[in-house]
Amino acid sequence: MKTPLWIPSDERKGQANITHFMRDVNARHKLNIDSYSDLYKWSVEKIPDFWAQVWDFAEIRSSKRYDSVVTDLSVFPGTKWFPGAKLNFAENLLRYRDDGLAFIFHGETQKTKRMTYAELYD
Question: pTM of the entire structure?
Answer without folding.
Answer: 0.81
